[in-house]
Amino acid sequence: MDANQRSRANPYGMDEECRNCPALCETRTQVVHGYGDVGADFLFIGERPTPTADEVGVPLAVSDDGTADGRNGNENGDAASGTTLRRMLERLGLCDSTSPPEQPCLENVYLTNLTRCRDPQRKPTDEEIGNCDPYLNAEIRMINPEILIPVGERALTELGTEYTTTPVDELDVTADHGQRIRGRGFELVPMIDPREQSDAQTQAWLEAFVALMASDYRQTKGQRDR
Predict the structure, then answer these.
(1) What is the largest CA-CA distance in the chain?
(2) Number of Cβ within a 10 Å radius of residue 184
(3) Is 45 within 8 Å of 148 (Cβ atoms)?
(4) Residue from 20, 34, 48, 30 nearest 127 by CA
(5) Both ends of the chain: CA-CA distance in Å?
(6) N or C: which end of the chain has fewer CB within 10 A?
(7) Which long-range contacts (CB under 8 A, 24 or more apart) does 196-205 make?
(8) What is the rounded distance in angstroms from the CA atom of residue 212 to the CA atom of residue 137?
(9) What is the phi-psi region of residue 146: left when phi exceeds 0, alpha when psi lies from -120 to 50, beta otherwise?
């Protein structure tokens, strides 16, 4: 955590009563703004709050029981490997495994989403993503990370459009999973939604990210005082 950071949850004090999307105001439990280390090099961006995130207010949140947000599959309960982002961060040494699910202790990682509110029946519309865009842009600007990690196809499309010169139709989260994509001011390292990854895809992404962490990944901006 940065010495001046008072809270990991919504550290920039963004509007917790936002009503920019009237339909989502009716379905959300709470507004889920960013969470994590404001001095982070690694910024993970999902599409929308998971069911657990909607309950506890932590983006991309997962609990330990393996059930609340489809961690033994996707949100519809389909079978998958049971991987979670938290477990992946723990294996990378970026999350304290002893910290509680509702208050994960993250180091050098910040978590956020394209949208801050959840409808349990549908994915966000383009308009809703646009309404939340100022929040995301502010977080990216203030954190100024080195690496953006789009989690899922929608996040890759949105971030790829904004921060790379790669044509959108050439971006594919499955093909680009764990690959380094040069961007405008950042590198992107896309990730298939952990709940939809096979064990082999999880291992491949982790190995690629370990190699990235061992490299001079800050060379795109130069070394920063932390």
Answers:
(1) 46
(2) 8
(3) yes
(4) 20
(5) 10
(6) C
(7) 196/74, 196/80, 197/80, 197/81, 197/83, 198/80, 198/81, 199/81, 199/83, 201/177, 202/81, 202/83, 202/88, 204/177, 204/178, 205/88, 205/177, 205/178
(8) 24
(9) alpha
How many angstroms separate the CA atoms of 112 and 133, rounded? Answer: 12
The sign of the torsion formed by the CA atoms of 186, 192, 194, 198 equals negative
Query: Side chain identity at 45, as an amino acid letter?
Result: I
Strand partners, 151: 191
R_g of the chain, CA atoms, integer Å = 16
DSSP SS3 for 34: coil
Instruction: State residue 131's pLDDT score.
Output: 97
Read off the pLDDT of residues 184-212 as tens digits, 9 standing for 90 and up: 889 999 999 998 999 999 999 999 999 99
With tokens 């709940």, the residue in question is 195
Distance in angstroms (rounded) separating the CA atoms of residues 56 and 59 = 9
| 8 A C-beta contact, residue 147 and residue 212 | yes
Among 105, 107, 123, 108, smallest CA distance to 47 is for 123
